[in-house]
Every structure is written in C-alpha cells, then in structure tokens.
Design brief:
Radius of gyration: 22 Å
Number of helices: 15
Helix content: 25-40%
Structural class: alpha/beta
Number of strands: 18
CATH architecture of the largest domain: Alpha-Beta Complex
CATH class of the largest domain: Alpha Beta
Number of domains: 2
Largest sheet: 7 strands, mixed
CATH topology of the largest domain: Quinone Oxidoreductase, Chain A, domain 1
Shape: globular
CATH superfamily of the largest domain: Medium-chain alcohol dehydrogenases, catalytic domain
Bound molecules: NADP nicotinamide-adenine-dinucleotide phosphate
C-alpha cells in the first residue's frame, strides 16, 4: 500500500503511473462480523456500543468486475447508517448482503462473513473494470452511495426506483471506511480541488440526501422565499440542509439541542434557531400519548421567530418523536419531507391537520446520480461547504461512530484511511482561499 500512498502524495496522477501500480492482495477495513450480530441482544439501543462491534481487519481485495472501479481511499466519513450497522438495528446488514449475493456470481462476492462499512469516500482510482470509459486510474474522486443494477425499466426515469437499488457500504459490501473500496463506476464524481481529503469525503451522502429532499422536484421543490423548518440542524443532514436553504434564498428555522449547536447554526448564516432542549418540548406525554398542547407551543414559537409565518417545508428525519409536531406546524398547503426515523419508525400524527389543510408528506431516500452530481457541483463551486467537527484515524473508527451514536458530534465526523494526516489533498490553494473568503463574506451578511 506504501507505493499507492507515495504515488498519490507525489501529485503525479497520470493514468500510466497508476495503472502500473501493483494492487495489494489485502487491505485494512472497518468491519462488523456475522458471528457477532447477537452481541447486544436484549440491550437498549443507547447502550449498544459501536466500539465493541466494529473491527479493523485485514481483508482480501475483491476482484474488479465489469463497470466497477477500485479506489484507494484517502478519507471516509461516518454516516448514521454505520451506527445502524454497528448496533445491528433495525436488522443486521448481513441479510442485505445475502439477498444481493443471490443475484449473480458477481454480486455473490458481497456475501461474506464480514461487512466492510462506509458510504462516503475521497480518493484516487486505482483500477477500472471492463466497460468503464469515463474514469481512469489516477483520477481524484469522491463516490456517492447509490448502487443500482438498472436492468429493469422502473429505474430508468429516476434510478432510486430501480428495484435493485442499494446503499453502497450499507446494503452492499466493500464500503469506504477502508484503505480500498469497490464501487460501480457510475458512483464516481470529481473531487473538489479546493478541499482536503477529509473535507471532500464528508458531504457526499448527507448533502445529496438533503439536496433531493429539499431542492429536487423529486423532493419538496424548495423555492426562493420559502420558510423551512430543519430538525437536527447541527447534525449531518441538517448542517447541509441549512446551507441549501440559505443558498436558495429561503429561510431556515433551525432546531438543535444545545447552545453550541445554536451558535454554529448562527455562524453558518441562520438567524432563527430553536434550542429544543432549553425550551423543553415534550411532544409525547408517555410512550403512547402525544401532547397537542406541546405542538401548539412549538408552532407558536416558530410564529414568534418568523413574524407569524408557518413553515412551507418541514425537513424531517427524527421520526416518531417529532413527526406529529412536524405535520401540525407545516403551513396550510405545506410539505413534510422525510428520509428517516431515528427515534422510531412508527409515526403518529393527527390526520385532520394534514387533509383539512391540504398538506403533503413526501418520502425521500438518498439521491439519484444526477442529483448527487448536482449536489457535488455545489460543493465544487464552493456554494456549500463541508461541515466537519472532528477526524479520527481508521483504527479509531469505533470511537468516531460512538460519538455519532451518542449525538456528541456536530456536522460530520471524518475518518482518515490512507491519508497520513489531515490537511492534505488541496490541489488548488488559490481557489480554496477564494472559496473560504466567499463563505466568510456570506456569513458576515
Ligand atoms: P446526525 O448527524 O446524528 O444528526 C441527526 C440530528 O437529529 C442530531 O444532530 C439531533 O440534533 C437530531 N435528533 C436526533 N434525535 C432527535 C429527536 N428525538 N428529536 C429531535 N431531533 C433529534 O445524523 P444524520 O446523518 O443527520 O442522519 C439522521 C437520520 O437520517 C438517521 O436516522 C440516518 O440514518 C438518516 N438518513 C437517511 C438517509 C436516506 O437516504 N434515507 C440519508 C442520510 C441519513 P439535536 O439533538 O441537536 O436536535
């Protein structure tokens, strides 16, 4: 692996140099083990510790198939799906690998007794398989996490509708929390030249998801002037949603749970912030009963902040705990757009507020290649900037995932794979200086 790292650090990224580099027979990767899926049986989710279930193993390099690319990973990032995988909830991910493995001999490579996790990467293409023409060894890339087979007509309008749609590194093997990763070539996108490896690896999954949820016609179709309630605005999805709202000329109302996260939202340009913990909202009286008085108190607070307006769009992902409130506070004709259920999948809301007020609930999931590409262009053009609170070495990925599981982080948490230290990978320092200056100008108002 030394030769690969040296070649990347040398900056000579000619295809000939990279195509001639020997591919090692094994690599270090963050895994969960199939024979350990019962290790947390009977425990509450909060008590399940990713530091116990995540391993760093030396694993064999998979063969590169048609339409695929093997990427030398300089950095990856922690997504909440790695939390789900590491606590084996809602189901162990090995079932996904078994099902995928049944499609063909090629997909059977994924069905292993270990699962290499990770749905983001920044790195350099090492090898491409037959039929790959758009990418070559030496290309600096990031990878989005949509894996599709596209053998069925349903996926040829919006690829998310492909019946064989999967999230790479969660529902497939050989993910990005590793020194090498196997992706489909149509997951690759150019890395932003002004970013470090760890910055470039941070936005992919969450930025693309928030882009589809808010900006795309497949999501809420946000427009100039909209008021958007952003739950978890200091977290992974929320920190990008907030930036997308601001950059679109809409107004975010950011919900967070600490003064520190409130400060970070304000620093990013958001003026309207609700600290849900400080204001003590309790939307559920007990496990079965919601409290509409608390919905009303929350709605009144939003109106107080906005001069009487209700949100045109509610950016939802906490799920059961907040969904009733989200449906209640959305304006007449407004949209609740949801991509997750962190606090519980079985949502309850008062349907009278939905139908009588002509509101919509829209389900959204990751992003298609086009949407992921457009979201990546916003990063490359400096309109959206990576939010990265901390970066860990690969060996300490368990700690990084623990931090996200316990909601101790803000923005994104990065992981260095082959990059020997933070701060490397900026190819255009002039552009970086200009981008950072533009961001500071924007934040200063
Ligand atoms: P994250 O970085 O942990 O951020 C989530 C934020 O949600 C937290 O910062 C927290 O903010 C807030 N939150 C958590 N529990 C809450 C609750 N009970 N009530 C109100 N707010 C709560 O995670 P993420 O990366 O943003 O992902 C969030 C969820 O979306 C996860 O379930 C993830 O699996 C899912 N997701 C789905 C997709 C998709 O394609 N479908 C893509 C990305 C993520 P405060 O404590 O500051 O309020």
């Amino acid at each position: 692996m030394r030769a690969v790292v040296d070649a990347i650090l040398s900056g000579d990224h000619s295809a000939a140099v990279f195509a001639a580099l020997p591919v090692p027979s094994s690599y270090r990767a963050v895994t969960v083990h199939k024979d350990e899926v019962g290790m947390f049986a009977g425990m509450a989710r909060a008590d399940k510790d990713p530091r116990k279930s995540l391993h760093v193993d030396e694993v064999p390099v998979p063969e590169v198939g048609p339409g695929e690319a093997l990427v030398a990973v300089m950095a990856g990032s922690v997504n909440y799906n790695t939390v789900w995988s590491s606590v084996f909830e809602p189901v162990p991910t090995f079932g996904f690998l078994e099902r995928y493995g049944r499609i063909s001999p090629l997909t059977a490579r994924h069905d292993l007794p270990y699962h290499v996790l990770g749905s983001d990467l920044a790195g350099v293409v090492l090898r491409t398989g037959p039929g790959v023409n758009a990418w070559k060894p030496g290309d600096e890339v990031v990878a989005h996490c949509l894996s599709v087979e596209l053998e069925h007509p349903d996926g040829h309008d919006d690829t998310l509708l492909d019946p064989e749609q999967r999230i790479w590194g969660f529902e497939t093997n050989f993910g990005g929390l590793a020194e090498l990763a196997l992706v489909k070539a149509n997951q690759l996108m150019p890395k932003a030249a002004h970013l470090t490896w760890e910055e470039a690896a941070a936005p992919g999954l969450v930025n693309s998801t928030a882009y589809r949820q808010l900006v795309s016609r497949n999501g809420a179709g946000m427009k100039l002037g909209d008021l958007v309630l952003v739950w978890g605005a200091g977290g992974g999805l929320g920190s990008y949603a907030t930036q997308l709202v601001l950059a679109s000329g809409a107004t975010p109302v950011c919900v967070v749970s600490s003064a520190e996260k409130a400060r970070l939202c304000r620093e990013s340009g958001a003026e309207l912030v609700v600290d849900r913990r400080a204001e003590g909202y309790r939307f559920w009286r007990d496990e079965r009963t919601q409290d509409p008085k608390e919905w009303r108190r929350f709605g009144a607070r939003i109106r107080e902040l906005t001069g009487g307006r209700d949100p045109d769009i509610v950016f939802e992902h906490p799920g059961r705990e907040t969904f009733g409130a989200s449906v209640y506070v959305a304006r007449r004709g407004g949209t609740v757009v949801t991509c997750a259920s962190t606090s519980g999948f079985l949502h309850e809301f008062d349907n009278r507020y939905l139908w009588m007020n002509l509101k919509r609930v829209v389900g959204s999931h990751f992003a298609n290649y086009r949407e992921a590409w457009e979201a990546n262009e916003l990063i490359r053009r400096g309109l959206i900037h990576p939010t990265l609170s901390r970066t860990y070495p690969l060996e300490e990925t368990g700690r990084a995932v623990y931090e996200v599981h316990r909601n101790l982080h803000h923005g994104k948490v990065g992981v260095l794979a082959l990059a020997p230290r933070e701060g490397l990978g900026v190819r255009d320092p002039g552009l970086r200086a200009a981008r950072l200056e533009a961001i500071n100008r924007f934040r200063a108002g």
